[in-house]
Design a protein that fits this description.
Radius of gyration: 15 Å
Largest sheet: 10 strands, antiparallel, barrel
Strand order of the largest sheet: 1-2-3-4-5-6-7-8-9-10
Helix content: under 10%
Oligomer: single chain
Low-confidence stretches: none
Distance between the termini: 22 Å
Length: 148
């Protein structure tokens, strides 16, 4: 498990708790949804997963959703295969992690994400591009701040 920190140092900088806002827009940038999020990014010392992320979303109307994303590690990438998603993440430079995944409940769809972390490791920006049948159907813009 220790190889992940050495071989994916940019991802290792994401360890901790993050708070932010997700803004979903249609292809013409019309806002579809906005909600708060808290993410916990962990590198467990024991167990089957090299990386474990918990996302907790809250909406202004009081709705709340908590999702768990355990990932394995191989070939300098982390890999997800959960009830919700199948995908992977890899580093492309000293500040950027790229992801691609499919939603198991959305056949024919796929997403790409880019995450940039600041030099001091306290801020990050993420963008998702959602495709269905190779057509852009939505984007998600996320601004987060480390809180722990």
């Amino acid at each position: 498990m220790s190889d992940i920190r050495t071989e994916m140092p940019v991802l290792a900088r994401h360890e901790g708790r993050w708070e932010g806002v997700y803004i979903h827009v249609d292809p013409d940038n019309k806002e579809l949804d906005r909600h708060k999020a808290e993410l916990q990014c962990r590198f467990p010392e024991d167990g089957p997963f090299a990386y474990y992320q918990i996302n907790t979303y809250t909406w202004p109307d009081g709705r709340r959703e908590e999702l768990h994303f355990p990932a394995t590690y191989r070939d300098r990438q982390i890999w997800w295969d959960t009830d919700r998603i199948f995908g992977r993440a890899w580093e492309i430079d000293d500040r950027t992690v790229c992801l691609t995944w499919t939603r198991k409940d959305m056949p024919g769809s796929y997403l790409y994400e880019m995450i940039q972390i600041s030099a001091d490791g306290n801020d990050r920006a993420r963008t998702w591009h959602w495709f269905d049948g190779d057509k852009l159907v939505k984007r998600t813009c996320i601004k987060e701040r480390r809180v722990g």
